[in-house]
Model the fold of this input.
Amino acid sequence: MHHFLSILKYAKPYKARAILSIICHVLMVLFSLGSVTILIPILNIIFENTQAITKQPIWNGIVNIRVFLQDSLNYWITYHSSNVGKQQVLFYVLLIAACFFIFKNLFRYFGARLLIFIKNGVERDLRNDIHHKLMYLPLPFFSEKRKGDIVSRLTTDILEIQWALLSSIKRFVEDPLMIISTLVVMLIMSPKLTMFVLILIPFTGIIITSISTLLKKPSAQAKEEMGNLLSLSEEHIGALPIIKSYTAEESTQKRFEASNEKHFGFMNKMLYRRDLSSPISEVMGSMVVLAIIWFGSKLIIEDQALEPEMFITYIALFYQIINPAKSLSVAFYDIKRSEASMNRINEILLAKNSLIDETEQIEAPVFNQSISLENISFAYDEKEVVKDFSFEIKKGQVIALVGQSGSGKSTIAYLLNRFYDPTNGKIKMDGIEYNKININKLRSQIGYISQDAILFYGSVLENLKFGNLKATQDEIIEACKVANALEFIQELEQGFDTMIGDRGLKLSGGQRQRLTIARAILNNPSILVLDEATSALDAESEKLVQEALNAVMQGRTAVVIAHRLSTIQKADTIIVMDHGKIQEFGTHQELIAQNGIYQKLVQLQSI
Done:
């Protein structure tokens, strides 16, 4: 129930609608009771079993409420029957019954309509909060998760909560009201029979609710496996060219089918147990009804303590309890089942963001002097990839990082962008520690261009304005000129309005990369971090992109991670990394003269 209450906090903005919904459900319950108890006068008139009472009854206290209500009903029927006739009285009673049924269903509809708005609103707000949290969580969180599994939390898990957990709100409002009010009426009609019923009901409840504890484990396993299925689907669709080139369609399909089979088994276990509740509830309910008939007949025949029409109405009222009781048991099953989804969602909502300090107040300084890395170390899963790294990047300098794959170059880029915080050491901008600077203000001064040209589904213009929605047409055109992108954009069928497809796949690799460069220019960063921005391109595309990068770096501080050494020969300082440490640094000529690691790398690329 803890998770149920944590979700209910999302209903606070809809408090007024929730109160109106409760009022509607209360009125629905009252009219529902009226639509059943109206059977008593109807049966009295039809069977001519009305005791003639000519004097209006007098109230003698709550203990005698049954006698008072019965005598009042008989007095009303006697009085009006003598004036207009029994048939006319029956017509009036049936008319009242019709009104009860109409108003009962009218208030049911309005109550349900209000709850629908609340449920959908909570679902929307919950999904917004999860996405918002995902946008601000640090990258290490995602390195431990599969994308498909995270997507399943935004989709299937939230739907599970909407349909299972939030639907229980209606049940927990309406069903207890129906059960309690019906029991009160039944107690007034026959205290002995009602006490007998109250002894029987707990036994049936214990048997039914014990099934709910069996649901939790298969439900959690099913949710986890659905996340795995979505992850596999995403991986396979994204890797179709590789799958086809290795003719691995069959093995890939078997991998998917194995996961799907697991999900099939978990879902069967969960639903078999859930659906067991309905037949058990019906059997137990039938046994209780048979017991009531046996005990009630004894009260009518032997004790003469209950009238037949009262007993018939009593049975009808008891059936008013069975459905709400079953519904409540289903609600408890659903809560148990949805706990797995809520746990998975809370794993995101309650995840701590180590990069954001609640006490941070310092606005990012306008970069004027330098960025210093002081004895930086960083570890992935306790494996240290950067060790005791110290260097100062002065404003206007172009710093290049080179080295073999796995030497820690990209990790330095991530640390400069503050995608991660160093395990040890400090990074400072103009003497102020990174973790004391507002993270958004810090990143707004850094332009990051990665090896993978990351674009979004949409038009060329939408992608260009991604980092600067206020960019003017002139600024966009100028940025595209600098990035060597204007010519190819103008040649597209619809120019800037051309849709580029998922991840920009309608464009070539070089075109995509030049588009990301233009996007970075529009953000007008003080510092550029280029992470092997040309390594995946052909010679012609590389030449165009490198020209664009050279133009962008004019007058800016830049950190360039390069695989091709020919692109960084003019850098102010080249840092050679190996196993996370600085092995050499200097200009191109100085490093060649040292005849060390850098000189060997140059020779290898010259072959």
Observations:
- Strands lie at 370-380, 383-394, 398-403, 424-429, 432-433, 446-449, 527-531, 557-561, 573-578, 581-586.
- The chain has a mean pLDDT of 79.
